[in-house]
Amino acid sequence: MSRPTEITIDLNALVANTQYAQSLSPDSQTVAVIKADAYGHGAIEIAKALQQQVTMFAVSSLEEAMELREQGIMLPVLLLEGCFSADELIIASNQRFSVVMHNHEQVQMLHVLGIEQRIDVWIKVDTGMHRLGFPIEKVVDVFSQLKAAAQVDNVILMTHLSVADEQHNPFTESQLNHFAQCRKNIETQFDVAMPCSIANSAGISAWPSARSQWNRPGIMLYGVSPFMHDDTMQSQLQPVMTFTSKVIALRNVLKGESVGYGNTWQAKEDSVVATVAVGYGDGYPRNAKLGTPVLVNGQRAKLCGRVSMDMITIDVTGLIDIKIDSEVELWGKNLLANEVATWANTIGYELVTRMPKRTRRRIISL
Ligand SMILES: *Cc1c(COP(=O)(O)O)cnc(C)c1O
Question: Which CDD domains does this UniProt record tie to the protein (predicted)?
Answer without folding.
Answer: PLPDE_III_AR_proteobact
